[in-house]
């Protein structure tokens, strides 16, 4: 699973860059002198709000890669990566300055008249010791972190995907038994805290179409506070098709009171990998493609949005030649974009 702390700028730098980037967009200028037409060639713009209300961060790894390629005269490569850079992707809040980051991203989104898409991924004992292991030191540290996120969001509009894999790892048994009750309590408390905010939507993560059956996770969702949440998320950082994800989500929705859900379509254009070691198919699989662009205009009334929760081009972990989790991998990003043609 994606690690929000992997080789990325500090929380302060990222939040500041987000605000600066949004300001540049609103001003209609680049950071250059503005005298030449090419000064605007690398600018990243927002998507039409009617179909895609989420904020496009102008200073992502993908946006910087576009600028690098354009400066080097690699127009074809720049055009491919622009497919990623001009779509809204999840902002994974880091562990160190949650209030500052959440405020920076939501303020930048508000200035662009958009909604910030935030991913919270700091639950204690995260990822069962795998590529994205870590998380808050203990329950009290996590509660303080959630409080910081909530203070940073305030009354501004935000959509939150809450703790990818946290419930799945309770069901599959890889989270030690002595931590399970605490995790339910932490998730339920996080939902309650975030839903106390005026304009925040919350989606509890609920796995994906390939890991098991909805019968295995609907009770854990209820214990974690799904009744108070807006719904649940599926396919985060995974590759299952939108069709399969809708089928899985609808089965699960029927068991949790008809709750709506969102789907991570960032890299599911070619569906999941079916070759190689089954336990590693989720990690940087070759031959994958960008999926449906983020939008609230979906094909099913139970699906609130297709989202790019995972940032396409950022590694799943140091497997198959990739860098550590969360690091930018330009060649993989190019392959995702080219395969989407």
Automatic annotation (TrEMBL):
Entries under Pfam families matching the protein: Glyco_hydro_6
Compositionally biased intervals (Basic and acidic residues): 33-42
Active site, UniProt feature: 165, 316
A GO term for molecular function: hydrolase activity, hydrolyzing O-glycosyl compounds
Region of interest (Disordered), residue spans: 29-57, 263-298
Sites where the protein binds substrate: 92, 211, 238, 282, 310, 314
Keyword terms: Carbohydrate metabolism, Cellulose degradation, Glycosidase, Hydrolase, Polysaccharide degradation
Organism taxonomic ancestry: Bacteria, Bacillati, Actinomycetota, Actinomycetes, Kitasatosporales
Protein's recorded name: Glucanase
EC number: 3.2.1.-
InterPro entries: Beta_cellobiohydrolase (IPR016288), Beta_cellobiohydrolase_sf (IPR036434)
Cited PANTHER family: 1,4-BETA-D-GLUCAN CELLOBIOHYDROLASE C-RELATED, PTHR34876
Top-rank taxon: Bacteria
The keyword Hydrolase is annotated on this UniProt entry: yes
Hydrolase in keyword set: yes
Protein's GO biological process: cellulose catabolic process
Family named by the database record: Belongs to the glycosyl hydrolase family 6.
Transmembrane segments: none
